[in-house]
Write a structure and sequence with these properties.
The complex is a heterodimer of chains A (about 120) and B (about 100).
Chain A: E1 3-7, E2 10-12, E3 18-25, E4 33-39, E5 45-51, E6 58-60, E7 68-73, E8 78-83, E9 92-99, E10 112-116
Chain B: E1 4-7, E2 10-13, E3 19-25, E4 33-38, E5 45-49, E6 53-54, E7 62-67, E8 70-75, E9 85-90, E10 95-96, E11 100-104
Parallel strand pairs in B: 2-11
Antiparallel strand pairs in B: 1-3, 3-8, 4-5, 4-9, 5-6, 7-8, 9-10, 9-11
The chains are: A mainly beta (about 120), B mainly beta (about 100).
């Protein structure tokens, strides 16, 4: 069974940092591109970032470019999102999701809440 | 960047109704589109991929159509468990529609 489990969310002050993790199981993690998507309270889904299967290529939404870094450790079956210089508008539930080749995001984690507030 | 315009933003309907939700892309995206259902406090669930392919395990009352710039999600006969928010996602460059909240009339 495919499982994605996010962790690392919490309350952080503006300007602070946080690292999210997404532990994958039930599939060959190293074969899939992975994504982060976020959802502010009461709002819609917003794509944040993606990484290819071996970690050599990444892409970011303009709103997080230069502040967030996506990475992965295929030996540990884990995806990461390092978030620096956090702002109030980064407050959201962050989901990791799997991307099958040539298709749309299929499996999603349950999400982890990040709250940026003083 | 490719923009996705989803309509309507909200919809009231009754059990048994047929409903249609539309997503329009600002430029052609072939069939690189998925549809998702999200219930409060839960992760999105994929219903349709490649614009018209039904995800395994999803009831056949859900269907998708379209290619290029215009796409539709149709629910043929609404069931109580279908009341949720629906999103389209173009995976050419990853943009979600704004969402459609489907409520009970």
């Amino acid at each position: 069974e495919v499982q994605l489990v996010e962790s690392g969310g919490g309350l952080v002050q503006p300007g602070g940092s946080l690292r999210l993790s997404c532990a994958a199981s039930g599939f060959t993690f190293s074969s899939y591109w992975m994504h982060w998507v976020r959802q502010a309270p009461g709002k819609g889904l917003v794509w944040v970032s993606r990484i290819n299967s071996d970690g050599s290529s990444t892409s970011y939404a303009d709103s997080v470019k230069g502040r967030f870094t996506i990475s992965r450790d295929n030996a540990k079956n884990t995806l990461y999102l390092q978030m620096n210089s956090l702002r109030a508008e980064d407050t959201a539930v962050y989901y990791c999701a799997r991307l099958p080749s040539g298709s749309s995001l299929d499996y999603w984690g349950q999400g982890t809440l990040v709250t940026v507030s003083s | 960047d490719i923009q996705m315009t989803q309509s309507p933003s909200s919809l009231s309907a009754s059990v048994g109704d047929r409903v249609t939700i539309t997503c329009r892309a600002s430029q052609g995206i072939r069939n690189d589109l998925g549809w998702y259902q999200q219930k409060p406090g839960k992760a999105p669930k994929r219903l349709i991929y490649a614009a018209s392919s039904l995800q395994s395990g999803v009831p056949s009352r859900f269907s998708g159509s379209g290619s290029g710039t215009e796409f539709t999600l149709t629910i043929s006969s609404l069931q109580p468990e279908d009341f949720a928010t629906y999103y389209c996602l173009q995976h050419n460059s990853y943009t979600f529609g704004q969402g459609t909240k489907l409520e009970i009339k």
